[in-house]
Amino acid sequence: MTDSSRLPPALNIITLATFAASLSARALDPVLPHVADDFSVSIATAASFAAVFAFTFAIIQPVLGAAADLFGKARLMIVCLVLLGIANILGAMATSFWLLFASRILAGIGSGGVFPVALSLTSDLVGPEKRQIAIGRTLMGSMTGNLLGASVSGLIGDLLGWRGVLAALGGLVIVASIAVAAGFRGAALKRPPKTNFASLKHGYRTIFSNPNAFCYVAVFVEGCCVLGLFPFIASFLFELGETSLSVAGLVIAGFAVGGLFYTLSVSRFLPWLGVKGMMISGATLVGLQLAVVALGPGAKAQALSLIFMGWGFYMIHGCLQVFASELSVEARATALSLHSFFFFMGQTIGPIAYGFGLQHAGKVPTLLTAATVMIALGFVCAKLLRQTRPADAAAM
């Protein structure tokens, strides 16, 4: 493996973009109980903010992926960062549940144009032999943003309330968008091949005729079973008597800490375990941690469990991202946007499914079911996914 220090310098700019976008992704999770109180809705209803953010992020992906391939990835990314910042600020000023709901739709669109395009730019910059290491670098920005977004939002929530959380993050994202725009101006990025609507249609055929398109099913299941849980973690802690939003934010941030551990260790574990071993080990680790959370341990134990869950999650998820990046060369942004589409559709269905399960079956059966599904997913992915050359690679 080539050392990650030899990766193109432009990856630092891309990492900054993913960091800025990820600040807002989990910002409301630690403060949902207070949002629910302010608007006199149930915690399950308040969790719809996570679902609508994920749904909008997902549903816009086919459009944004095509737009990135047609009009330029870096330009689209910067515009979406600005939109995300403005959406957060508008959310801070919302006077009703539905206005806040609408602001999360805009935030989903803005965030949707950053991360998958960042992955596509990363894939354009490096070859397949270094791609998982490079994607790990890009993920580091995302994980750091998730870590600070969850933990800092809990701290700000205790001091300024949930409105202060959105206002502060909105301002930070806009400042970051300016820095990213300035950085891209001098970045030596490769120009992608010219793309038109006819080639996009061909790209979709290439993508879905590839057997590795099963990775889309896999990331949908991941989104349901893992990310769908997060809006309920604060309420789990409330049931245990831990009502501090800061503590809830730190527990949720444990997942991002695990993701950071993955980004720092992937270059060592990948040669040792191989892709199949990474997927099986990661999914099994996630399943075990879901079982631990089902047992209702205290906040410290849950934080530790989420660290291991984040590490395991990105062991399998990082592999699936690489498979998605190799479905097509000519329509890589489209392929990775579809990856995000299915992943965030899973995150849309996940909170709804968890809410239904928690209400009708209870916490332990619901989380143990998710744990079983995740472990099975790792073995199925290891059996069905194969590293192959994209069908349109010869045309490049």
Give a structural overview.
- This protein has 396 residues and is mostly helical.
- Helix 4 packs antiparallel against helix 15, helix 5 packs across helix 6 (73-92) and helix 11 packs antiparallel against helix 16.
- It has helices spanning 10-22, 32-38, 43-46, 48-59, 61-71, 73-92, 97-112, 115-125, 128-185, 197-209, 214-225, 233-239, 245-294, 299-325, 332-360, 363-384.
- It is globular and about 55 Å long.
- Helix content is 79%, strand content 0%.
Short description:
The chain has helices at 10-22, 32-38, 43-46, 48-59, 61-71, 73-92, 97-112, 115-125, 128-185, 197-209, 214-225, 233-239, 245-294, 299-325, 332-360, 363-384. It has 396 residues and is mainly alpha-helical.
Mean of pLDDT: 82
Any idea what the shape is?
A: globular
Beta-strand residue fraction: under 5%
Helix content: over 70%
Content-based structural category: mainly alpha
Beta strand count: 0
Low-pLDDT ranges = 1-5
Key phrases:
disordered N terminus; mainly alpha; 79% helix; 16 helices; 396 residues; 0% strand
Draw up the topology in text:
Layout: H1 10-22, H2 32-38, H3 43-46, H4 48-59, H5 61-71, H6 73-92, H7 97-112, H8 115-125, H9 128-185, H10 197-209, H11 214-225, H12 233-239, H13 245-294, H14 299-325, H15 332-360, H16 363-384
